[in-house]
Design goal:
alpha/beta, eight-stranded parallel β-sheet, seven-stranded mixed β-sheet, globular
Length: about 375
């Protein structure tokens, strides 16, 4: 007789989320997507295009379905702290396979309800890979937020830092610009500070008060001995009056807005130097917030070429390849290259992070008994 699936809500998920756990899972997903042509026993992915079901047009509601199978990838057996550089403990790696589907509903009218409800809700379903039985349902909103920022962290590690050496992400100081201080801008700011040595963090938002509020939250985190906060006492945090001012001397730029038009242009970047841009593409046009003249000068990488072909219609420049290929091959971009990670998000990332969260929660339960 089948048992009812176990449900883990957002509070349980937040207890175990840390950057080491999420970064490891996301990196494994990126590697697996790009290992399709490699012989077994490498990891592999089956990941169809996301499905979109329109609900009542009056509600502007949609249901997104994002299924994935990730086979033969590696996760650390036990939990550990997440710190700058994403280091873990001495726990051993264990081979995993995960069959999952993320369900996302987006109902913009929820904000107008009394009381208001979140516009977006996500849940991730985990199935037994031998029987197909549904075993676990995990609240997926925080997982989605974290894995999106984590993909930028992993891309920055391999597309920017590794061109300077095998340990550059642990040693090299950088200036970071955050363009757009909403949910993704905020989590990207926290992620960059938690995982890298950020000398100066520049914040820009069209409504300056939002950038100011984020700055205050990050300043509060500087006194918080928490790996998930990770803002070093030496980090200077500046609210900028324009996107140009924010990016002009930045080494790493994260752009996460709904802007349909470009917020940064090539001339805004200032003097030629090694620069990496994480373009999160939160709007209807994934690549609207970064100008065409930046794309045409850049080496552009994505999480999945298959997804890019499906979603990036009209993209203004050639795509060099997948981040996972860079990781698997150990080859980094040229030292002075301008690189862009065009992030789209993948079901494989959700699957691997959900599996890691489930493992951490099960470990937590065992340790408490």
């Amino acid at each position: 007789m089948n048992q009812s699936p176990v449900f883990y809500g957002e509070d349980a998920v937040r207890r175990v989320l840390n950057w080491r756990l999420v970064n490891e899972a996301v990196e494994e997903a990126l590697k697996a997507v790009s290992a399709q042509q490699l012989a077994y026993p490498h990891s592999y992915v089956s990941q169809p295009a996301r499905g979109v079901t329109k609900a009542d047009p009056k509600q502007s509601g949609i249901l997104l379905t994002m299924p994935a199978f990730v086979g033969n990838y590696q996760l650390t057996e036990a939990g550990g702290g997440g710190g700058r550089g994403g280091g873990g403990g001495d726990a051993s790696k264990v081979a995993r396979s995960t069959l999952a589907c993320k369900l996302v509903t987006s109902f913009r009218g929820n904000r107008e309800l009394q009381p208001p409800l979140p516009s977006i809700a996500a849940n991730i379903l985990l199935f037994n890979v031998q029987t197909g039985n549904l075993e676990t349902i995990i609240a997926g909103t925080d997982i989605t937020t974290w894995r999106t920022a984590s993909a930028s962290v992993v891309a920055t590690k391999y597309l920017y830092f590794r061109r300077f050496g095998p340990r550059a992400e642990l040693e090299r100081e950088i200036n970071v610009a955050i363009v757009g201080c909403g949910v993704q801008g905020a989590i990207h700011a926290a992620a960059m500070c938690a995982n890298f040595k950020v000398k100066q963090l520049n914040l820009y938002n069209r409504t300056e008060s939002r950038a100011t509020q984020l700055r205050q939250r990050l300043l509060n985190d500087q006194n918080n001995d928490n790996d998930n906060a990770g803002v070093a006492p030496t980090t200077t945090i500046v609210v900028c009056s324009s996107a140009r001012a924010a990016v002009q001397e930045a080494d790493v730029i994260c752009v996460a807005t709904y802007a349909p038009n470009a917020l940064i242009n090539a001339e805004d970047l200032g003097t030629k130097r090694p620069i990496h841009i994480n373009a999160i593409g939160a709007g209807e046009v994934h690549f609207g917030e970064v100008s065409t003249d930046i794309y045409t000068q850049s080496r552009v990488y994505v999480d999945s070429l298959v997804s890019a072909e499906h979603e990036l219609h009209g993209f203004p420049a050639p795509i060099v390849g997948e981040v996972g290929t860079v990781i698997n091959s150990g080859s980094s971009p040229e030292l002075q290259a301008l690189t862009v990670f065009q992030s789209m998000g993948m079901a494989a990332e959700d699957a691997c992070v959900a599996e890691a969260v489930k493992s951490a929660l099960c470990s937590e339960s065992r340790n408490s008994n």
